[in-house]
Amino acid sequence: LIFPGPIAYTVGESTEQFIIPPVGMLSIADYLDRNGYKVVVDNLCERMVTNEHFDPGEHIKNLSAKVYAIDLHWCVHSQGAIEIARLCKELHPDAMVILGGLTATVFGEEIIHKCEDIDVVIRGEAEKPFLLLMNALKQNKKLEEAPTLTFRNSEGRVISNPLMQPYADLDEFEFTRLDLIEPKGVIFTKDTPPHWGVPICRGCVYNCVTCGGSAYSNRTYLGRKKPAFRSPKKIAEDIQKLSDQGV
Q1: 163-173 residue pLDDT tens
Q2: How far apart are the C-alpha atoms of 2 and 245, rounded to whole Å?
Q3: Exposure string over 171-198, b if 16+ CB within 10 A, otherwise e
Q4: Could you give the CA distance from residue 111 to residue 104 in angstroms, rounded to a whole number?
Q5: Angle at Cα 231 formed by Cα 229 and Cα 234, nearest 5°?
Q6: In 18, 52, 179, 193, which residue has its Cα 20 to 30 A from 219's Cα atom?
Q7: Which residues of the chain have pLDDT under 70?
């Protein structure tokens, strides 16, 4: 039996487990894809919720990648994200396992201290830092050269590189690459019309304690002191691109 908690009432467009990938994950995937890396956003949450016979361990075992990046945005996913990281490292010990997202950002050093299966936490806004990380791995450079990373060095010491300056312009990023997501049932569900979010900005003018807007910025977790807004032209393009995909 599933007993929905308070967070369940805020995510009626998916399920009580909140199985829609964060829109930022899609912009990271697109940014890496456009720069020559093969990327798939594999929605394990949807696979687990929609198929009672699905075995996440067997599924991960059959994957082949040099890097496994796991989202830990909402704190309610903490146990699941860390368990997926453990499976990735156990089944692919030579691969790099990365956590990112708001919750991973806030608790980055604690995660690296306590979770040996996680190699890197990438903090804050991750499109450009993730690309720099991938380039560093490709060129056999030290992780100290890539910004926003928290990791263990060769001596086992936890290192937190400085944050990259938050982006002032978001128009170079794409948020509609639904072709990078597998599966897509949560978007094209039979119960509701096809749906996806169109981001307007990053950051917030308010200082609520319950969100990662400016409150966390003031605590230096994200480094953003004011919102960055997308242009009306890019928002209109997003709507058109989603419409072309049946959303």
Answers
A1: 998 888 999 99
A2: 33
A3: eebbbbbbebbeeeebbbbeeeeeebeb
A4: 8
A5: 120
A6: 18
A7: 1-17, 207-222
112-138 confidence digits (pLDDT tens): 999 999 999 999 899 999 999 999 999
At 57, list the tokens: 């361990």
Report which residue type is found at 98.
Answer: I
Rounded CA-CA distance 11/156 in Å is 40
Pairing of strands 67-71, 96-100: parallel
Fill in the amino acid letter for 149: L
Q: Residue 31: what residue type?
A: Y
